[in-house]
Each structure stands twice: as C-alpha cells, then as structure tokens.
Design brief:
Ubiquitin-like (UB roll), alpha/beta, four-stranded mixed beta sheet, four-stranded parallel beta sheet, 18 helices, 3 domains
C-alpha cells in the first residue's frame, strides 16, 4: 500500500533551489530550531524519544535511547555520520546535496538537546558537491545567528565543523569514524569499553548519528514526536528513504511510510520503481545494502519494517534495495560484492583480512570458469569461520560487523542458486555471457 504520508525529509526536493538558504527559509526552515530553543533540552529529548525515531544509518538503534546513554562530562561531542560508502546506497548523498540546511538545522537541534560542546559533520570525501553545500549551509547558519555564539539570542552557543573523510568504507562504522576524525587510521575500536557514549571522540562522551536521522529532527520538533510516531507501525515509525537500484524501470530515492509499504510496492508500483525492466522476472533482491542476506520473489509482500525484515532473516540496513532480474549472473553478483568487502577491509582482524581475500579469490576462480565442485564446500567452510553458524544476525568474530557481513551474499547465492555455480564449474564459464 502506498500511503499519503507527508514527505518529511524530501519535502523541498521538487524545487531546483532546494539547497539554498532562501528556499529553506521560505519553506519553514529554522522554525524547528527556534521552537527547540524555547523548550528545555530535556523536553526536546522527550519529543525525540516520543517519536521513537530509529537510527537511519543501518543498525536501527532508537535515537532517543542513544542520546540517553551519553555520559555526563564537561566536554561532550555530537558527530554526524555522513560516510555513506556502501554500493548502491545514495540516500544521504541526496540529502547533503539537495537539502543541506535541513541537516544543519537537525544537527543544531540535537546539539542543543544534548548540550554538547562541539559538533562534527563527517562526510564522505567523494561527496564534493555535498561537502561544498553543507559547508555553505553551515556558513549561512553562522551568518544568520543560527550557529556560533548565543544562537538566536537563546544563550546557547555551539560550533559546527565539517570534516571530509578519505573514502574508506569502514569509516562508516562509528568508532572507525572517530579514529579517522582524530587523524588516525580508520580502525574500529573494541566495544566495550569504547562505546562512544562513554568513551568517544578524543576520549570524551560522544553521540554518533546518521545524516538522515538528523534530517528528521526539524519536522519532529515542529510537528511533535507524537505526529511522527503516528506514521508507520510498531517500532518502525515515521517515513524512511529507500535507495532503489538495479534492474528496475525507475531507480531512485523514495521516501515511504515505514511498515505500511511493501517491497512489492517499492519495486513494482508505477509511481515508484515501475517494475522489473524489459518485462523480465524478478530473481532476487537485496533488502538493505550489500551486507544484507538476499531476498527472493516470495519475500515481495514483506513490509518495509525493521522487525518484519529482521524476522524474515535479513535487515533494512542502509535503506538500499538492489533488484536483480532473471538475466543476472548470481555468481558474478556475489563475487563483486565479496571483492568490494575484501578491498575495504581495514585489515585489523584476521577473519576479515584473510577470509575476505580467500573468498574473493575462490569466487573469481569460479566466475572465470576455473572452479572445482569442492570449491562450494570450501566457500561455505570459510564463511563459517568468519561468521560461525552462518546465521543472521551474524556471530561476531571481529571487532566490527564488516567481517561477519561478508558471507551474506555468498551463502545467499549458493543456497538458492547452487546450480549456477555448478554450471560455471562444469561448463567452464558463465551461461549469461
């Protein structure tokens, strides 16, 4: 069902000048911040908690609960994670380019609610236009008194720093991001004790939130947490951005009401994906970024809800839905995903560093028609060493979840499309070439 829910984070995108301060002010911009500053910080936090806003970065942890974990300290930080680097994921990219002021206002609201001493917006270095526009929006906020000293005469002061990353996927993991922000290699930290809310940036308590999460805050404060919570179902409240890619007529970013809309709606509705292109049949789709286990045609009626997708054995993750039609080589698809993870492993943990390389080499051998039948068992055995039991959510054998996420595509492909692997091996090549 496609609902008539309001657009929350994409309301301005029909305007060509949606990134400008003039358009933002003309469409109610910074009114949420003004309202927040007239409230107590505790009341602002209560509204976010009432909204039951799940983090939009992948893990789906409630933002209000994360805020409540911030350890009291003279120095605290808010860090915004804009290091969106997973293949086919481009919702945050859209927001930082097309509505940077909405992000900046959300960041300022969160900074006031948490009473932090400084804010850092960490953006993927390849987002050249997005970096330029977010920095411009921050400069505009300072110029009009929305950031800096005594913002809007409230007595609250905050500085906002925009920091570009260097293009490492692992820096999307919050503790690796903090390491990078400190000028070190992006190595994830061991948790515990390094939960950011207790020991974060520069050793001080830190809240790390995603770009889309922050972009929801102006609407929540303006309209109330209860209005946000009234959208969606269960824990999956509000709307969410879904980046639809792959073999569909109309790839793009769509803002949909959570849990009331299905994968079938997203992929096949004429107003959204428009169906699988060239009149072909759906073969498989990835529901939440390439680290997620794959879904198949029988999963189309699943709602776009956090718990519903988890119960079916996968995750909404980064909000990236990749469609594969019946002309897709599943061996090649799984190999390319594995190759990405192998390249992006930070190398800190042995199962990820060594295992990803072994898996990639075996997958390439099969794809090129040089595989052996026993390679399939070898692949599953290596996957089991990285993620014991091959279950989802995965068992942790590494400091961060990158390593245990690697087997998802391989195990999905082998369990569902084992015959394609065998054809590659027996015929000495890909049948789709």
């Amino acid at each position: 069902m496609i609902t008539d829910s309001p657009k929350i984070v994409t309301a301005r995108l029909d305007h060509a000048d949606s990134h400008t301060l003039e358009r933002y002010l003309a469409t109610g911009g910074y009114e949420g911040l003004r309202k927040a500053l007239a409230m107590t910080p505790e009341a602002v936090c209560a509204e976010v908690d009432k909204a039951s806003l799940l983090g939009r970065g992948g893990a789906g942890f409630p933002a209000g609960r994360k805020w409540s974990m911030l350890r009291k300290n003279p120095v605290t930080y808010l860090v915004v994670n804009g290091d969106e680097s997973e293949p086919a994921t481009f919702k945050d990219h859209l927001l930082v380019e097309r509505d940077p002021h909405q992000l900046v206002e959300g960041v300022l609201i969160a900074a006031y609610a948490l009473q932090v001493t400084r804010v850092f917006i960490y953006l993927r270095g390849e987002f050249a236009l997005g970096l330029e526009r977010v920095q411009g929006a921050v400069n505009d906020a300072y110029a009009q008194g929305a950031a800096g000293r005594n913002i809007f005469g409230s007595g609250f002061s905050i500085d906002v720093v925009v920091h570009p990353g260097a293009g490492a996927y692992v820096c999307g993991e919050e503790t690796a991001l903090l390491e990078s922000l400190e000028g070190k290699r992006g190595f994830p930290r061991i948790k515990p004790p390094f939960f950011p809310a207790a020991i974060g940036l520069y050793g001080d308590p830190t809240v790390v939130n995603n770009v889309e999460t922050m972009s929801n805050l102006p609407w929540i404060i303006t309209n109330g947490g209860a209005a946000f919570a009234a959208l969606g179902l269960g824990r999956s409240t509000g709307t969410r951005l879904f980046a639809l890619a792959g073999d569909v007529h109309k790839p793009g970013v769509y803002e949909l009401e959570m849990a009331k809309t299905t994968f079938d709606d997203l992929i096949n509705a004429p107003l959204l994906g428009g169906g699988v292109h060239h009149g072909r049949a759906l073969k498989a789709f990835i529901p939440g970024g390439v680290s997620a286990p794959w879904f198949f045609p029988e999963h189309l009626e699943l709602p776009l809800g956090q718990d519903e997708v988890a119960e079916a054995g996968s995750m909404l993750g980064s909000g990236s839905v990749v469609v594969m039609d019946d002309h897709t080589c599943m061996v090649r698809a799984a190999w390319r995903i594995t190759k990405f993870f192998s390249r992006e492993s930070c190398g800190q943990c042995t199962p990820c560093r060594e295992g990803s390389g072994w898996l990639e080499r075996i997958m390439e051998r099969i794809e090129r028609g040089q595989g052996r039948t026993e390679d399939l068992d070898l692949l599953l055995d290596a996957c089991d060493n990285i993620s014991p039991g091959l279950a989802w959510p995965p068992q942790q054998t590494t400091i961060c979840v990158l390593g245990p996420s690697i087997p998802s595509s391989i195990t999905s492909a082998i369990h569902r499309f084992r015959d394609e692997f065998l054809i590659h091996i027996k015929d000495g090549g890909c049948p789709f070439d």
